[in-house]
Amino acid sequence: MLPREFRHPLFVAGVAAYGLVQFNRFVVPGLLLPLLTSYLADLVCLPLELTVALVGLRRLYFRRPGFVLPTAWIFSTWVVTALWFELALPHLQPSATADPLDVVAYALGALAFGGWLNRPA
């Protein structure tokens, strides 16, 4: 059975949203509005990544179901993600584009994770 964190409605919605973006990208282009295709994956990125990290840390490292990620870890994940995808990667890969609104989407995702997903099991 899946860990409880992976059954949280917000996590499930994030996985479904990301799947929809990928379906739109590879199977039926144009299905979603451009605003959704531009920012939905960025919005769900940190809640999904941080939830996977939280489950791994709870079960493999700390072995405490009540462990929650410190706010500084969530903030630093947001900073590193924003710097990598919006500053470094566009210089290293010609197909990557920097978009300041992506940074906002990452921040909203980090806030959603901190507010609803980062709770003791």
UniProtKB/TrEMBL annotation:
Keyword Transmembrane included in the entry's annotation: yes
Keyword terms, alphabetized: Membrane, Transmembrane, Transmembrane helix
Organism of derivation: Hymenobacter persicinus
Keyword Transmembrane: yes
Protein name, per record: Magnesium citrate secondary transporter
Spans traversing the lipid bilayer: 35-55, 67-85, 97-117
Superkingdom in the source lineage: Bacteria
